[in-house]
Amino acid sequence: MRPSRRILTGVVATVVAVALSALPAADRPEDAEVPAAVDEPGVVRVMPLGASSTVGVGSPATAGYRLPLWQRLAADGVRIDYVGSRSTGPDALPDTDHEGRSGWTAARMVPMTGGWVLAAQPDVVLLHAGTNDLLQGASARATAASLDRLLDRVFAAAPHTHVIMAGVWAPLPKQRAERSRLAEYLPRVAAAHRAAGHSVEFVDTATLFPAGRTADGLHAGPGAYRTIASVWADRIEVHLGVRPATGRR
């Protein structure tokens, strides 16, 4: 191993050890899950984190938004490495890693999130959670509190990551009032974390696409996922200071 690589690896090990000590015991991964290698220069590690929409339910042929997002960023010269402990998707997608858990609420994710993030060490987290909380009867206030705790775990494991937190995009006609309240709470959650020195932004996706563009009344269809991918790509490129390809924005 070259001396410079040995030094970098030692730095990474030290940072990981410090992050481990800051995590609650339930969040700490097994030693084998902790990364031993340094990042590849010029590649952005992106963690898609959420429930069934992150997996791609509604458009398995595109892995939801993950294939169109990969294609858009590649076209703009942004090299990404999807990271996460799960790997599903079509052959057309060069990198199928993600941290999507179909059916999970944000509350259920909280105790696991620190370990997932610590193992993956993402540069950017694409967070979309809370839909299942509302569907299962949680209030907007309780759902926002769960997402607040989830962000605590993300930043304890990877203090310098950037989180793009999307609101609920599913129509949820039976939970319309709580869905609307959640869209009011989440910008405040993001602002509180920024005030604490964290890099996080909230993207309101409540009116991103009409109910008619869903695959089943809940999950986005292929066209809607392309719209979602464009939103993620725009925010990633703004964060990175990348000028998009001619003809966009």
Automatic annotation (TrEMBL):
Domain of life: Bacteria
Key words, A-Z: Signal
Pfam families: Lipase_GDSL_2
Ranges for domain SGNH hydrolase-type esterase: 49-224
Record's signal peptide: 1-24
Protein name: GDSL-type esterase/lipase family protein
Organism per entry: Pseudonocardia tropica
